[in-house]
Write a structure and sequence with these properties.
Elements lengths: L5 E5 L3 H13 L3 E5 L2 H4 L9 E6 L7 H11 L5 E5 L4 H9 L4 E4 L4 H31 L12 H13 L6 E4 L6 H10 L8 E5 L5 H9 L15 H4 L4 E5 L6 H13 L1 E2 L8 E2 L3 E6 L3 H6 L5 H7 L2 E4 L10 H16 L8 H9 L5 H14 L7 H6 L1 H4 L4 H19 L4 H8 L3 H11 L8
Parallel strand pairs: 1-2, 1-3, 3-4, 4-5, 6-11, 6-12, 7-8, 8-11
Antiparallel strand pairs: 9-10
Helix pairs in contact: 5-13, 13-15, 18-19
Amino acid sequence: MDDQGQIFLIDDEEHIRNSGSQTLELAGFSVQCFEEASIALPKLSRAWNGVVVTDIKMPRMDGLTFLKAALEIDPKLPVILITGHGDIPMAVEAMRDGAYDFLEKPFPADRLVELVKRGLERRELILENRQLKNELEAQKTTRGPAIIGKAPAIVKLRETIANLADADSSVLIMGGTGTGKELVARCLHETSLRHRCPFVPINCAALPEHLFETELFGQEAGIDGAEKPRLGKIEHGNGGTLFLDEIESMPPNLQAKLLRFIQEREIFRVGGNKAIPINMRIVTATKTDLKQAVADEVFREDLYYRLDVSPIGLPPLKERREDIPLLFAHFVQLAAQSYDRSVPPLEQERMQALLAYGWPGNVRELRNTAERYVLDPEADILEEAKENGAEGAKEASLYEQVRNFEKSLIAEQLRLNKGNVKATIEALGLPRKTFYDKMAKYGLDRKDFG
């Protein structure tokens, strides 16, 4: 943000300007005084971070005229009106028209400070939400679902997807529960030349073993009393992408049939003798170590090497904490649209709680938390998460948790300050050398936040 918490005080009476500015400066605010509202107006913009305190009755441009012009620049600008006793009904009407609040003369100093403080907090939240929305828009791809994040691992992931999209090789996606394996698979499909054909997702753990073969390969008429042939998922999605999630759960006898399909690119329906040629890309996903499954002889080694042509590893959310604000804002927007609710602002204390939490359920858990927040902004949004994920949150040592939290706080301040080192150092209260040491330690680059 170009300006850090400015206060514009507009009044044609010098003693009010002097006393008001002194009160606010003693409270730690940066104050700029104006005798005429018309001089202050051109200094406002949608990016301006501050609060306006203005008298209503002034010569030339009065406070209400200024309010109307200011809200045309930005309807979310916090404007506090100073009014006399007889002007209270007018001030109340002005609040209906968009004024943030009003002060009745004579007003106590602490009331002015409190209103300005709350107005500034609101303004910072508005600008932060806008910045998050802009960043989200900037990360949207022309085709396919958006993979949100600025963490180095996510930047590399987007590059990998772009490189593999049209390679047509088999891809094995590895990551814990909730890290976004199906999202990556869909993105691979939607950005490939196959995007006009079906994307066929199958969860291997959810299919009963006795239905697995029929579901994948289909069956001929006469089997189990069927009057006509039934197309399996693979035949139905011919030309597209087959995504097999939790591939480690595939029954051993079907692993051999899947291997044959990958090698020969043809299938036989259950009960049939006719080979059906198939042109399909194979993308699989696992949350376990398939190499260990091979060593334990529960997964075929030859199938593993067929699937692991182009591996993609997904990091847990706790290793990309700098992406939590972006992801949370994205999920809040989606939930607000889905439930037809307004987007609630998020206080800094709650964001710090989100940054500090272990997220054993990864991005999926964060999305569920965002939905709960939209439905009930006053509730403790992490209470259920902490109860459900208590064991997962304890996986990291105290040292790792402190290290991850420190990295996320530095990254969040860099993002808020658009990579401005001076502003970030001041916000964190760190000596410059210590700040640069920590940047090097955590692999952070201010250019990534500019």
